Amino acid sequence: MIRYLARRLLSLALSLIAASIVIFAVIEIIPGDPAAYMLGLNASPEAVAALRDQLGLNGTAFSRYLDWAGGLLQGDFGQSYTYRVPVAELIGERIQVSLPLAAYALVLTVLIAFPVGLIAAARRGRPADWGIMAATQLGIAIPNFWFAMLLVLLFAVKLHWFSAGGFPGWEGGLAAGLKALTLPAIALALPQASILARVMRSSLIDTLHQDYIRTARAKGLTRRQALLRHALRNGLIPVLTIMGLQFSFLLAGAIIIENVFFLPGLGRLIFQAITQRDLIVVEGVVMLLVFAVIVVNFMVDIAYGAADPRLRRRR
Amino acid sequence: MLNRLKLAIAALALSASAALAAKDTITLGMVLEPPNLDPTAGAAAAIDEVVYANIFEGLTRFAPDGSILPALAESWEISDDGKVYTFTLHGGVKFHDGTEMDATDVKFSLDRARAPDSTNAQKALFAGIESVEALDPRTVRVTLKNPDGLFPFKMAWGDAVIVAPESIDKDATHPIGTGPFRFVKWVKGDRVEIEKNPDYWGTPVKLSHATFKFISDPNAAFAAMMAGDVDAFPNFPAPETLEQFKADPRFRVIVGSTEGETILSTNNKAGPLADIRVREAIAHAINRQEIIDGAMFGYGTPIGTHFAPHNPAYVDLRALSKYDPELSKKLLKEAGQEGLRLRLMLPPPTYARRGGEIVASQLRAVGIETEITNLEWAQWLEQVFKGKDYDLTIVSHTEPMDIGIYARPDYYFQYDNPAFRDLMDQLNLATDPTKRAAILGAAQAMIARDYVNGYLFQLAKTGVANAKIRGLWENAPTQANDLTGVYWEE
Questions:
Q1: ipTM
Q2: CB-CB: which of B188, B226, B386 is closest to A36?
């Protein structure tokens, strides 16, 4: 187990180094000068040159990479060009929105997908199953930003139950914060829940054909008992894989939803940073997301073990 | 359960009516978030839209109609040769951190802006200054290299506000000015909050608290206005919904003018475009009203030169470039440029992207094919503005009184005319308003006759506000959300 962990950690470190090089190189290629962007159409060339100097943009690409990567190792993400504050501080502020939003959406996803998937599997081929399959197909097909706009028009503009968007900050209280995240979380969760429910259903149906289920039934368990006690646990492996991917997606991929609800999350930070050529922020956030994806995958691997003891032994 | 629900609704209703009783707070929507809050170190309009006149003040300031008013300078005297300005400052002015504002702060601010390592985005405003002296705490003498009748105008820009040496390093994130509002907090990506400055030296403001909320998505902006999350959106990003707001008595639509000349910028040194006949042909191929209607939902004023129509010195020169496709074809034939192909580079704003499509089809009608490339701002700055690697582009030049850019041969139009530079030199020396107007008129005519660029329209300022709000700027002589005169009608 320890050797396994050491191997995983080494591969984690190598992935991060490779990612940092790729990220830095890609951002080097994008045309656009942050200093020119900041000073606009009337700026004199001397002022732009002075600002480039201040921002430390004048070194070679290699020395700037070393500065940046060296800083990362010490937990220093550098200083944002445009905001003039440490990148770590910006990320810290934004993650207070993005992480709870992703978690909230994932909880909703699970709360919807698990029962729905179970019912569909248990009622396979019957009207309830057809209905669920049709509804989840629709859930996948509807673009989430459009669904989000419908939610805003109904609950904010018509009914005034929620704000149209924005985030008051957690210092305004847990309830206010969660309330502000509710509509975005629903908009994010709907398509994910539809996908997960379908994965859950087909995975359960697969396991229901296994010999051990037949044995369990022969032993005298009802269909429901066999489903809940034996099939569910075995059917969870593909579901966990999908959930891991979904969490990474929810964390990194909420850019559009954050725009629709004008939430100050990581997605909007990176979007804004790219337009303003605040490259150091882009690099920092992308690095962090890569790190998050790797860690989530790592955790999913561990969760496999919990769900299926055979996988633990195989290692 | 039902009772608890009723209770909750009653509580909500109560808090809502309490909010209605004495409303002295406002939430303003803005499309872009400022990158930082120091107006002396960045060109972003969003900086001034938060801090101008609210947090920071200069020696002079823009009035809502574009005229120049005294601000921190109570008055000033100009020497007979027009080179020495002696400003008398208001007494008892304090920065928000409690320190006194005096002549040394003025000297510091102006010297810093014109220093060799200055990163002021409008450094040219200070280029004419020879020296700045603090004579006594309330008197500053500015000596210019040449007489400059526009100096008080230049000092009204957001880039020329007075800052303190003690707080300058923090101004980007925690601005310390002398204005009637002081900074409270900035939740990055979401909002900036400011509150009334109880120690303000001038007329106190009526609002106690103001929030600037950043909403970039047009649909979200619409929803935020409709849901009442935002009280006013002075530059509303969804013009297609303005009719809906007009029809709704809860709202007021505010349409005004800006300093933004939207032009079809032309690379005057790019092959066929160096030929004035080709540029003239392009000018006559353009139907301005069609662009205003098609790209701007009818908001915008057609212009015939690079000058704001609401300025008293404006000359209507639209006749020089009136829509005449037949004349265009004739001119192209004369120039031997039938079947011309040009590259049209479009930055992100809708006026450029939508306007560009229309311009392309109008040019096609006279036989000029265009190849459209959409660019991000940063790319546009790099390739078009700095690299001058383009034929045509569409941009709104939003700085006030910026006709002087035509005197810069290395500017991205690459218009090189000594006669024009001579006019600008004369303008800088002229202090008499009639003489200035005459020179400005000649300058407008010169760039219109040289067909330097295609002059399209003056960008309109279209805003939406709660019908009970008073005192918002209608026009935008500079990009600002001056809240000093804003209040809620009972």
A1: 0.78
A2: B386
